[in-house]
Amino acid sequence: MNTKHLVTVACAAAFCGGVWAAENANANAAVEVEEESSSLSDYVSIEAGIALDSKYLSYGVVDNNDPIVTPSACITFFDWMFVGFDAIFDVTPYGRKRIDGERVYMNRGGRYQEFDPYVGIAHAFSPEDCEYLPTTVEFSLDYCYEYHPESMGKVWGEHSQFITLEVGLPDLWLEPKFTYERDIDRDNGTYLNLELGHTFSLIDGESEDDDPVLSLRPSVGQGFGNGQRVGYYLWKENDEPLDHSGLMDTCIKLELAWNFCEYFTLSGYVAYSDFLFDRQIRQASRYYEAHGKWDESYNFICGLALNFAF
Questions:
Q1: DSSP β-bridge partners for residue 81
Q2: pLDDT digits (tens, 9 = 90+) for 105-129
Q3: pTM of the model
């Protein structure tokens, strides 16, 4: 090989080597950028909040006619599995009362009256994930252990366990959400609820994918209980359980949510709850608080909540 050919081959080799090195460097840089772009938030999300409610209702009946405070927290892994808790604190001595001369409730002022740890799975499936879906479907399935301290007294001192299934269609205009709840420990009762509502954006986010800065959501929900669930909470006038399945609480609610910064949301609501469609259940609900401060079937409630999501 003469010198001219040797120089040509060397130049070609140098050029190819430079191209290969540049491409390899770009590939390594892309991998580094991709590795740098992934973070803990891609795999784990955290939600926490604290809420103040003017009353505490269970399936439309009053468990506490005075305000309660509810802190909560939840961690979700890989957008599938979650674990969290809710706790209910009584802020007044409302729970201290006697029935037939016997003290069955204790003074719960400033104490927690319920602690609910839970674990479950949840996910949202869109038409992009499954071509057979006409719209986005959200579902969650969780197990909850309901714990009551001794300060709750004899009536509500027993613990229980629940299985809850929720299915929602958030992209439809009426945003339907169906809830199935089964008490697997205390009364073996079943409670169903169907909620319809719509979220109106009062102030839009910066982009179409962002949540509204300010939103308003009216909704209406209707509950149904089987004989075990109704009979555990509601009694006849002769102090016998109302073993009667039927439509329970109807709740009409108006919620306002303000996303005032990236991670925090302040929300408030007002609601009206009543037993509108079943006369026996409506009448029995009036005896539920016969020894308390309220003996009507309807309730007006309101609340505020501050939530953090990361």
A1: 77, 121
A2: 556 667 778 899 999 999 999 998 8
A3: 0.81
